[in-house]
Write a structure and sequence with these properties.
By secondary structure, this protein is α+β, with helices and mostly antiparallel strands. Helix content is 53%, strand content 16%. It is built from 10 helices and 10 strands. It has a 4-stranded mixed sheet. A 4-stranded antiparallel sheet has the order 2-3-7-6, with no helix packed on it.
Protein backbone atom coordinates (compact mmCIF):
# COMPACT_ATOMS: atom_id res chain seq x y z
CA UNK A 1 0.00 0.00 0.00
CA UNK A 2 1.44 3.34 -1.07
CA UNK A 3 1.16 6.36 1.21
CA UNK A 4 2.87 8.79 -1.10
CA UNK A 5 1.89 10.66 -4.23
CA UNK A 6 3.42 9.84 -7.59
CA UNK A 7 5.99 12.20 -9.09
CA UNK A 8 3.33 13.51 -11.48
CA UNK A 9 0.88 14.16 -8.64
CA UNK A 10 3.57 15.94 -6.62
CA UNK A 11 4.32 18.09 -9.66
CA UNK A 12 0.63 18.96 -10.09
CA UNK A 13 0.42 19.86 -6.41
CA UNK A 14 3.50 22.09 -6.64
CA UNK A 15 2.40 23.74 -9.89
CA UNK A 16 -1.06 24.59 -8.55
CA UNK A 17 0.47 25.93 -5.32
CA UNK A 18 2.71 28.20 -7.38
CA UNK A 19 -0.19 29.29 -9.59
CA UNK A 20 -2.34 30.06 -6.56
CA UNK A 21 0.41 32.01 -4.79
CA UNK A 22 1.18 34.01 -7.92
CA UNK A 23 -2.27 34.79 -9.32
CA UNK A 24 -4.89 34.00 -6.68
CA UNK A 25 -3.52 34.86 -3.24
CA UNK A 26 -2.84 38.55 -4.04
CA UNK A 27 -6.46 39.21 -5.07
CA UNK A 28 -8.39 36.73 -2.89
CA UNK A 29 -9.23 39.31 -0.23
CA UNK A 30 -10.47 41.80 -2.81
CA UNK A 31 -12.58 39.12 -4.51
CA UNK A 32 -14.20 38.33 -1.17
CA UNK A 33 -14.79 41.98 -0.31
CA UNK A 34 -16.31 42.89 -3.68
CA UNK A 35 -18.03 39.56 -4.36
CA UNK A 36 -16.92 39.75 -7.99
CA UNK A 37 -16.44 36.80 -10.30
CA UNK A 38 -12.67 36.18 -10.75
CA UNK A 39 -12.92 35.99 -14.54
CA UNK A 40 -9.23 36.63 -15.13
CA UNK A 41 -8.22 33.74 -12.87
CA UNK A 42 -10.71 31.31 -14.37
CA UNK A 43 -9.39 32.24 -17.82
CA UNK A 44 -5.82 31.50 -16.71
CA UNK A 45 -6.94 28.20 -15.21
CA UNK A 46 -8.52 27.29 -18.53
CA UNK A 47 -5.44 28.26 -20.47
CA UNK A 48 -3.32 26.17 -18.11
CA UNK A 49 -5.43 23.05 -18.62
CA UNK A 50 -6.77 23.01 -15.07
CA UNK A 51 -10.52 23.24 -15.84
CA UNK A 52 -10.81 19.81 -17.44
CA UNK A 53 -8.13 17.85 -15.63
CA UNK A 54 -9.78 14.41 -15.30
CA UNK A 55 -11.21 14.22 -18.83
CA UNK A 56 -9.68 12.64 -21.93
CA UNK A 57 -7.39 14.73 -24.09
CA UNK A 58 -9.58 14.09 -27.14
CA UNK A 59 -12.38 16.01 -25.41
CA UNK A 60 -10.25 18.95 -24.34
CA UNK A 61 -9.15 17.57 -20.99
CA UNK A 62 -5.75 16.92 -19.48
CA UNK A 63 -6.14 13.16 -19.07
CA UNK A 64 -5.22 13.30 -15.37
CA UNK A 65 -6.57 11.00 -12.68
CA UNK A 66 -9.26 12.19 -10.27
CA UNK A 67 -6.89 12.32 -7.33
CA UNK A 68 -4.66 14.78 -9.18
CA UNK A 69 -7.71 16.95 -9.87
CA UNK A 70 -8.77 16.85 -6.19
CA UNK A 71 -5.25 17.80 -5.08
CA UNK A 72 -5.42 20.81 -7.42
CA UNK A 73 -8.75 21.84 -5.87
CA UNK A 74 -7.19 21.67 -2.40
CA UNK A 75 -4.24 23.85 -3.35
CA UNK A 76 -6.41 26.40 -5.17
CA UNK A 77 -8.89 26.57 -2.28
CA UNK A 78 -6.03 27.10 0.13
CA UNK A 79 -5.65 30.54 -1.45
CA UNK A 80 -9.26 31.27 -2.44
CA UNK A 81 -12.13 28.93 -1.60
CA UNK A 82 -14.48 30.74 -4.00
CA UNK A 83 -12.17 30.14 -6.95
CA UNK A 84 -11.60 26.53 -5.92
CA UNK A 85 -15.34 25.94 -5.73
CA UNK A 86 -15.95 27.55 -9.12
CA UNK A 87 -13.52 25.06 -10.65
CA UNK A 88 -14.97 22.17 -8.65
CA UNK A 89 -18.57 22.81 -9.72
CA UNK A 90 -17.51 23.25 -13.33
CA UNK A 91 -15.46 20.05 -13.40
CA UNK A 92 -17.28 17.65 -11.09
CA UNK A 93 -20.90 18.64 -11.59
CA UNK A 94 -21.18 20.30 -15.01
CA UNK A 95 -18.60 18.40 -17.05
CA UNK A 96 -19.05 15.16 -15.12
CA UNK A 97 -22.56 14.21 -16.32
CA UNK A 98 -21.63 14.79 -19.97
CA UNK A 99 -18.35 12.88 -19.65
CA UNK A 100 -19.92 9.94 -17.81
CA UNK A 101 -23.33 9.67 -19.46
CA UNK A 102 -23.28 11.86 -22.58
CA UNK A 103 -23.29 10.70 -26.18
CA UNK A 104 -20.26 11.01 -28.41
CA UNK A 105 -21.87 13.99 -30.14
CA UNK A 106 -22.53 15.70 -26.78
CA UNK A 107 -18.97 15.17 -25.67
CA UNK A 108 -17.62 16.74 -28.84
CA UNK A 109 -20.07 19.65 -28.86
CA UNK A 110 -20.33 20.47 -25.17
CA UNK A 111 -17.64 18.69 -23.12
CA UNK A 112 -14.74 19.82 -25.31
CA UNK A 113 -15.23 23.60 -24.87
CA UNK A 114 -15.95 23.05 -21.18
CA UNK A 115 -12.90 20.88 -20.53
CA UNK A 116 -10.52 23.12 -22.48
CA UNK A 117 -11.63 26.14 -20.46
CA UNK A 118 -13.39 27.97 -23.27
CA UNK A 119 -16.80 27.64 -21.60
CA UNK A 120 -17.92 27.54 -17.95
CA UNK A 121 -20.46 25.02 -16.71
CA UNK A 122 -23.20 25.09 -14.06
CA UNK A 123 -25.26 22.37 -12.38
CA UNK A 124 -28.93 23.27 -11.85
CA UNK A 125 -30.59 20.67 -9.60
CA UNK A 126 -31.80 22.33 -6.38
CA UNK A 127 -35.19 24.05 -6.34
CA UNK A 128 -36.81 26.40 -3.80
CA UNK A 129 -38.81 23.47 -2.40
CA UNK A 130 -36.39 20.66 -3.21
CA UNK A 131 -32.94 20.52 -1.62
CA UNK A 132 -31.88 17.23 -0.06
CA UNK A 133 -35.28 15.86 -1.14
CA UNK A 134 -34.61 15.93 -4.89
CA UNK A 135 -37.88 14.10 -5.51
CA UNK A 136 -39.81 17.19 -4.45
CA UNK A 137 -38.62 19.06 -7.56
CA UNK A 138 -41.36 20.46 -9.79
CA UNK A 139 -39.52 21.40 -13.00
CA UNK A 140 -40.99 19.55 -15.97
CA UNK A 141 -39.83 18.67 -19.48
CA UNK A 142 -42.54 17.87 -22.03
CA UNK A 143 -41.61 16.43 -25.42
CA UNK A 144 -43.09 18.38 -28.30
CA UNK A 145 -41.88 17.22 -31.69
CA UNK A 146 -38.08 17.25 -31.70
CA UNK A 147 -37.76 19.42 -28.57
CA UNK A 148 -38.34 19.21 -24.84
CA UNK A 149 -40.09 22.21 -23.31
CA UNK A 150 -38.77 22.93 -19.83
CA UNK A 151 -40.67 24.88 -17.17
CA UNK A 152 -39.52 25.49 -13.61
CA UNK A 153 -37.11 27.37 -11.36
CA UNK A 154 -33.79 26.18 -9.97
CA UNK A 155 -32.08 27.88 -7.05
CA UNK A 156 -28.62 28.00 -5.44
CA UNK A 157 -27.14 27.34 -8.88
CA UNK A 158 -23.40 27.83 -8.50
CA UNK A 159 -21.80 29.46 -11.56
CA UNK A 160 -25.34 30.25 -12.73
CA UNK A 161 -24.87 33.95 -13.58
CA UNK A 162 -21.67 33.35 -15.56
CA UNK A 163 -22.15 29.89 -17.08
CA UNK A 164 -22.19 29.08 -20.78
CA UNK A 165 -23.60 25.58 -20.35
CA UNK A 166 -26.14 24.26 -17.82
CA UNK A 167 -26.74 20.67 -16.83
CA UNK A 168 -30.25 20.53 -15.40
CA UNK A 169 -32.92 18.06 -14.32
CA UNK A 170 -36.66 17.88 -14.94
CA UNK A 171 -39.55 15.45 -14.69
CA UNK A 172 -40.34 13.76 -17.97
CA UNK A 173 -42.81 11.50 -16.13
CA UNK A 174 -43.94 13.23 -12.91
CA UNK A 175 -45.90 10.14 -11.85
CA UNK A 176 -42.79 7.96 -11.65
CA UNK A 177 -40.74 9.21 -8.69
CA UNK A 178 -38.02 6.64 -9.30
CA UNK A 179 -37.38 6.82 -13.04
CA UNK A 180 -39.40 9.84 -14.11
CA UNK A 181 -36.64 12.46 -13.96
CA UNK A 182 -34.29 13.17 -16.85
CA UNK A 183 -31.21 15.31 -17.39
CA UNK A 184 -30.58 17.90 -20.09
CA UNK A 185 -27.90 20.20 -21.47
CA UNK A 186 -29.08 23.79 -21.93
CA UNK A 187 -26.90 26.42 -23.57
CA UNK A 188 -26.70 30.04 -22.52
CA UNK A 189 -28.90 32.15 -24.78
CA UNK A 190 -31.52 29.44 -25.31
CA UNK A 191 -34.92 31.16 -25.54
CA UNK A 192 -36.84 30.65 -22.32
CA UNK A 193 -33.69 30.37 -20.17
CA UNK A 194 -33.09 33.31 -17.85
CA UNK A 195 -31.06 34.07 -14.74
CA UNK A 196 -33.17 34.97 -11.74
CA UNK A 197 -32.17 36.40 -8.37
CA UNK A 198 -28.45 36.62 -7.56
CA UNK A 199 -27.53 35.63 -4.01
CA UNK A 200 -25.08 37.52 -1.80
CA UNK A 201 -23.52 34.92 0.45
CA UNK A 202 -21.79 34.89 3.82
CA UNK A 203 -18.71 33.19 2.36
CA UNK A 204 -17.18 32.06 -0.96
CA UNK A 205 -18.43 35.41 -2.19
CA UNK A 206 -16.55 35.33 -5.48
CA UNK A 207 -18.43 32.17 -6.45
CA UNK A 208 -21.51 33.33 -8.35
CA UNK A 209 -24.85 31.86 -7.27
CA UNK A 210 -28.33 32.50 -8.63
CA UNK A 211 -31.72 31.21 -9.58
CA UNK A 212 -32.08 29.76 -13.08
CA UNK A 213 -35.53 30.05 -14.63
CA UNK A 214 -36.93 27.89 -17.42
CA UNK A 215 -40.09 29.33 -18.96
CA UNK A 216 -41.21 27.48 -22.08
CA UNK A 217 -37.53 26.77 -22.70
CA UNK A 218 -37.14 24.70 -25.87
CA UNK A 219 -34.26 22.22 -25.69
CA UNK A 220 -33.34 19.95 -28.63
CA UNK A 221 -34.21 16.30 -28.06
CA UNK A 222 -30.57 15.37 -28.66
CA UNK A 223 -29.63 17.33 -25.50
CA UNK A 224 -31.11 14.64 -23.30
CA UNK A 225 -28.20 13.18 -21.29
CA UNK A 226 -28.17 9.40 -21.18
CA UNK A 227 -31.54 7.70 -21.42
CA UNK A 228 -34.99 8.97 -20.58
CA UNK A 229 -35.49 8.56 -16.84
CA UNK A 230 -31.78 8.50 -15.96
CA UNK A 231 -31.91 11.87 -14.18
CA UNK A 232 -31.79 10.73 -10.56
CA UNK A 233 -29.04 8.21 -11.33
CA UNK A 234 -27.00 10.89 -13.08
CA UNK A 235 -27.52 13.45 -10.31
CA UNK A 236 -26.59 11.09 -7.49
CA UNK A 237 -23.56 9.73 -9.34
CA UNK A 238 -22.18 13.18 -10.06
CA UNK A 239 -22.82 14.39 -6.52
CA UNK A 240 -20.68 11.48 -5.32
CA UNK A 241 -17.88 12.78 -7.54
CA UNK A 242 -18.47 16.35 -6.43
CA UNK A 243 -18.21 15.47 -2.76
CA UNK A 244 -14.59 14.47 -3.24
CA UNK A 245 -13.96 17.98 -4.58
CA UNK A 246 -15.74 19.57 -1.60
CA UNK A 247 -13.70 17.46 0.82
CA UNK A 248 -10.55 18.65 -0.94
CA UNK A 249 -11.76 22.25 -0.81
CA UNK A 250 -12.40 21.90 2.94
CA UNK A 251 -8.91 20.52 3.53
CA UNK A 252 -7.48 23.46 1.57
CA UNK A 253 -9.37 25.97 3.74
CA UNK A 254 -8.27 24.18 6.92
CA UNK A 255 -4.65 24.08 5.73
CA UNK A 256 -4.77 27.82 5.11
CA UNK A 257 -6.16 28.31 8.63
CA UNK A 258 -3.26 26.31 10.04
CA UNK A 259 -0.71 28.21 7.91
CA UNK A 260 -2.04 31.54 9.17
CA UNK A 261 -2.20 30.31 12.78
CA UNK A 262 1.40 29.08 12.83
CA UNK A 263 2.75 32.32 11.35
CA UNK A 264 0.75 34.48 13.77
CA UNK A 265 1.55 32.36 16.83
CA UNK A 266 5.28 32.68 16.11
CA UNK A 267 5.06 36.45 15.61
CA UNK A 268 2.58 37.47 18.32
CA UNK A 269 4.42 38.38 21.54
CA UNK A 270 2.55 38.34 24.85
CA UNK A 271 4.10 38.33 28.32
CA UNK A 272 7.52 38.55 26.71
CA UNK A 273 7.34 35.49 24.48
CA UNK A 274 5.62 34.29 21.28
CA UNK A 275 2.22 32.78 22.01
CA UNK A 276 3.45 29.69 20.11
CA UNK A 277 5.42 28.90 23.28
CA UNK A 278 2.18 28.44 25.20
CA UNK A 279 1.00 24.85 25.49
CA UNK A 280 -2.64 25.85 24.91
CA UNK A 281 -1.72 27.21 21.48
CA UNK A 282 0.54 24.27 20.70
CA UNK A 283 -2.27 21.82 21.38
CA UNK A 284 -4.59 23.74 19.05
CA UNK A 285 -1.99 23.58 16.29
CA UNK A 286 -1.37 19.87 16.94
CA UNK A 287 -5.07 19.08 16.71
CA UNK A 288 -5.40 21.08 13.51
CA UNK A 289 -2.49 19.27 11.85
CA UNK A 290 -3.75 15.84 12.94
CA UNK A 291 -7.28 16.38 11.64
CA UNK A 292 -6.10 17.95 8.38
CA UNK A 293 -3.89 14.94 7.70
CA UNK A 294 -6.75 12.55 8.49
CA UNK A 295 -9.11 14.46 6.21
CA UNK A 296 -6.60 14.58 3.40
CA UNK A 297 -6.15 10.82 3.47
CA UNK A 298 -9.93 10.31 3.52
CA UNK A 299 -10.43 12.25 0.30
CA UNK A 300 -7.29 10.73 -1.22
CA UNK A 301 -8.79 7.28 -0.60
CA UNK A 302 -12.18 8.18 -2.08
CA UNK A 303 -10.47 9.57 -5.19
CA UNK A 304 -8.22 6.50 -5.39
CA UNK A 305 -11.26 4.19 -5.35
CA UNK A 306 -12.88 6.21 -8.13
CA UNK A 307 -9.70 6.05 -10.20
CA UNK A 308 -9.61 2.28 -9.73
CA UNK A 309 -13.19 1.92 -10.95
CA UNK A 310 -14.33 0.69 -7.53
CA UNK A 311 -17.43 1.79 -5.54
CA UNK A 312 -16.70 5.02 -3.67
CA UNK A 313 -20.05 6.56 -2.69
CA UNK A 314 -19.69 5.76 1.02
CA UNK A 315 -16.07 6.89 1.08
CA UNK A 316 -16.94 10.16 -0.68
CA UNK A 317 -19.61 10.85 1.95
CA UNK A 318 -17.20 9.97 4.76
CA UNK A 319 -14.58 12.31 3.33
CA UNK A 320 -17.09 15.09 2.80
CA UNK A 321 -18.66 15.01 6.27
CA UNK A 322 -15.35 14.67 8.12
CA UNK A 323 -13.44 17.24 6.12
CA UNK A 324 -16.18 19.86 6.14
CA UNK A 325 -16.82 19.64 9.89
CA UNK A 326 -13.10 19.53 10.60
CA UNK A 327 -12.64 22.59 8.39
CA UNK A 328 -15.23 24.71 10.19
CA UNK A 329 -13.98 23.63 13.62
CA UNK A 330 -10.38 24.56 12.89
CA UNK A 331 -11.17 27.76 11.02
CA UNK A 332 -12.87 28.83 14.27
CA UNK A 333 -9.75 27.75 16.20
CA UNK A 334 -7.65 29.97 13.92
CA UNK A 335 -9.84 32.96 14.77
CA UNK A 336 -9.40 32.09 18.45
CA UNK A 337 -5.62 32.02 18.09
CA UNK A 338 -5.71 35.46 16.47
CA UNK A 339 -7.94 36.75 19.26
CA UNK A 340 -9.56 40.10 18.57
CA UNK A 341 -7.55 40.55 15.38
CA UNK A 342 -9.12 37.39 13.98
CA UNK A 343 -12.56 38.96 14.24
CA UNK A 344 -11.63 41.94 12.11
CA UNK A 345 -12.63 42.16 8.44
CA UNK A 346 -9.60 41.91 6.20
CA UNK A 347 -7.91 39.17 8.18
CA UNK A 348 -7.65 36.00 6.15
CA UNK A 349 -8.78 33.83 9.05
CA UNK A 350 -12.05 35.79 9.27
CA UNK A 351 -12.67 35.03 5.58
CA UNK A 352 -11.70 31.39 6.06
CA UNK A 353 -14.27 30.95 8.82
CA UNK A 354 -17.04 32.32 6.60
CA UNK A 355 -15.87 30.21 3.67
CA UNK A 356 -15.68 27.08 5.81
CA UNK A 357 -19.33 26.96 6.85
CA UNK A 358 -20.77 26.26 3.41
CA UNK A 359 -18.71 23.08 3.03
CA UNK A 360 -21.02 21.50 5.64
CA UNK A 361 -24.07 22.37 3.52
CA UNK A 362 -23.63 22.23 -0.26
CA UNK A 363 -23.47 19.07 -2.32
CA UNK A 364 -25.24 17.30 0.52
CA UNK A 365 -25.42 18.45 4.13
CA UNK A 366 -23.50 16.68 6.88
CA UNK A 367 -26.77 15.10 7.96
CA UNK A 368 -27.38 13.77 4.44
CA UNK A 369 -23.86 12.32 4.33
CA UNK A 370 -24.49 10.47 7.58
CA UNK A 371 -27.69 9.08 6.05
CA UNK A 372 -25.71 7.85 3.04
CA UNK A 373 -23.03 6.25 5.20
CA UNK A 374 -25.51 4.61 7.54
CA UNK A 375 -27.66 3.24 4.71
CA UNK A 376 -24.61 1.54 3.21
CA UNK A 377 -23.96 -0.16 6.55
CA UNK A 378 -27.45 -1.48 7.30
CA UNK A 379 -28.98 -2.28 3.91
Amino acid sequence: MEFKLSEEQELIKANMREFAKTYVEPVAGEIDESGRYPAEIIKKLGEGGWMGMPFPVEYGGAGADYLSYAIAVEELSRSCAATGFTMSVHTGLACGPIALFGSEAQKKKYLTPLANGGHLGAFALTEPGAGTDVGSATTTAVLKGDEYVLNGTKTFTSNGPVADTFVTFAWTDPEDKRKGMSSFIVSKGTPGLSIGAHFMKMGIRGSQTSEVVFKDCHVPKENLIGNLGDGLKIAMSCLDHGRIGIAAQAVGIAQAALDESIAYAKARIQFGKPIAKNQAIQWMLADMQTDITAGRFLYYYAAYLKDQGMPFSKEASMAKVFCSEMCFKHAAKAVQIFGGYGYIKGQKVERLLRDAKITEIYEGTSEAQRMNIASSLIR
